[in-house]
Amino acid sequence: MGNKRLDWIDIAKGIAMILVIVGHTVPNPSPLRHAIFSFHMPVFFFLAGYTFRPKPWRELLSGSVPRLLVPYLVLALAWQMPTFLMSGASLTGGTLVAELETILFASGVDVPGFGVAAVGMAWFLAALFTSRLLFNVLVRLFDRHGIGAVWQGVVCAAIAFCGLSVSRYFGVYLPLDLDLSCYIVLLMWVGYTARQRGLEPSVGKPLLFIGVGVAWLVLAALSGLELSSRRVDGFVVATVAALAGSYCVCWVSIALEKLKDVPVLGSFEQALVFCGQASLAIFAIHAVDWFIPWQTMPLLMTLPASWLFASIVRCACDIGLAYVIKKA
Question: What is the per-residue pLDDT across 278-321, written as a single tens digit (0 to 9) for each?
Fold first, then answer.
């Protein structure tokens, strides 16, 4: 396939990005939020693995730093400034140190035991950056030593379990989400292996799609997943549910890609392609719009199923603003 951009991957990213916005808008807790969170972030990490190529360190860093680390720093600061201003605290040396610690840990939730505040949604970019570095190490070691796919999976699963154990059971969160990245590399490895072995979803196998979808529904109901807080309730069940949900998104995306020449549906497909290509911009806008009280706006609160209208308005604002910026 070379380096040719695949529309279905952009469509999958677009679907996942919309689910991120909806997941942050629907009531918490709620069955819908639980279902969305069971797979919406794993989709991104699965696709990151699917498109991954092992690279020399200079090349990997030259691509990952400007694409992930720099946007992370910008978003982290954009999150911290309004948070600081709303707190009414005075700017002191101690405050600056606390802000630097927050940026260093890059945690989506407060770091227990250290008094370090959450960095907000920017955690995703820091975690993806660290995960890419860690995964590059693993893939190069696997290739160098000729380790087969089965043992690769065992190693990645063991690393994932150890990383979660450090954070969940010992309460130790590592800088730049390194503990969480240990789990993310397992999701990346599945995506990477799927491409290496030609295991992409096939629209010619609808019964497999239905079966995987049913498996996702059942397993998601029996587990819980929220990566920003290191919540993986039922390691095996939650991981399989996340991968099953990711498979379904990819299957739907491949099916939609085949409809690009169909009137109306083709326009919908192109809109999702745009959302995927502009996913970083939409994500950044969404991270900043966190301070807007979407769920409690008086106009929206008077409507039935207010969360649905809030989700539609929020998606329209975030995606529309990204479109304007991209076209400017």
Answer: 999 999 999 989 888 887 777 777 777 888 999 999 999 999 99
Q: How far apart are the first and last CA of the chain?
A: 32
Q: What is the mean pLDDT of residues 221-235?
A: 95
Residues 176 and 106: beta-carbon distance below 8 Å = yes
The answer to whether the CB of 140 falls within 8 A of the CB of 54 is yes
Q: Is the CB of residue 128 less than 8 Å from the CB of residue 228?
A: no
Environment class of 296 (CB within 10 Å of its CB; exposed 0-12, middle 13-18, buried 19+): exposed
pTM: 0.94
**CA angle 56–161–129, rounded 5-degree value:** 35
Measured distance CA(189)–CA(143) in Å, rounded: 13
DSSP assignment, residue 53?
A: -
Spell out the alpha helix ranges (H) of the chain: 7-23, 31-37, 40-50, 57-64, 70-87, 93-105, 123-145, 149-164, 178-196, 206-221, 235-257, 265-277, 279-288, 298-301, 306-327
| pLDDT above 90: residue 2 | no
The predicted-structure confidence for 234-259, as pLDDT tens digits, reads as follows: 999 999 999 999 999 999 999 999 99
Cα–Cα distance for residue pair 10/105, rounded to 1 Å: 30
Phi, psi of 147, deg, nearest 5: -80, 130
Closest C-alpha to 24, from 120, 154, 98? 120
Residue (of 83, 112, 111, 86) closest to 287 by Cα position: 83
Most confident among 83-87, 115-119, 263-267, 279-283 (mean pLDDT): 279-283
Q: How many CB atoms lie within 10 A of CB 57?
A: 11
